[in-house]
Amino acid sequence: MGTFGSVAQLVEQLPLKQLVLGSSPSRPTMKITICGSMHFAKEMLEVQKLLEELGHEAIIPLDTHDCLKNPELNSNLEWGMNLNIDKDHFNKIESSDAILVLNYPKNNIKGYIGGSSLMEIAVARHFDKKIFILHDLPNEDQVRYALEIKVTRPIILNGDISNINNYS
Q: What gap in Å lies between CA 139 and CA 136, rounded to an integer?
């Protein structure tokens, strides 16, 4: 069968595998966990697809599809606790290279980041993960903990998800 033995073995050779899978040695792919309000479940699925098209592995919250079908689940404490949604997502963050916080406008706040996303940012910071935030941070007058978010040294993508490839 030649030097490599099979096509599968040939594809597993790093430079060729990267060419076949669409990435390059100069820009390795990342495993990115998507974070944000479950109010943005639809957008999470869209961003997951975009990240995958950019060559990254994109991880979404456990309840994304459920919250898209039934938005009331966003505020159902018992349901969330039974599924251990927070712990599941924290574990995803720990096993990722980075997080991407989707901070679309919500509650009349541009760049909204809620309490759950704040906790996810803290987990990412604790595990030395890259922290990407899609839009500018909210104003400190609107979100009291905006300063704490700044301390984590997030990378603001200025609304363009493709900017993430500048940091992979």
A: 9
Q: Which domains does the chain have, with CATH numbers?
A: 23-167 (3.40.50.450)
Quote the CA–CA distance of 21 and 16 in Å, as a whole number. 9
Terminal-residue alpha carbon distance, the chain:
36
Selection from 35, 11, 25, 14 nearest residue 99 by Cα:
35
Which DSSP string do the residues of 31-100 spell out, in sequence order?
EEEEEE-GGGHHHHHHHHHHHHHTT-EEE--TTHHHHHH-GGGGG-HHHHHHHTHHHHHHHHHHTSSEEE
User: pLDDT tens for residues 29-85?
Assistant: 999 999 999 999 999 999 999 999 999 999 999 999 998 999 888 888 898 888 899
Kindly report the pTM of this predicted structure. 0.82
Angle between helix 115-126 and helix 85-94 axes, rounded to 10 deg: 30
Tens of pLDDT along 79-88? 888 889 999 9
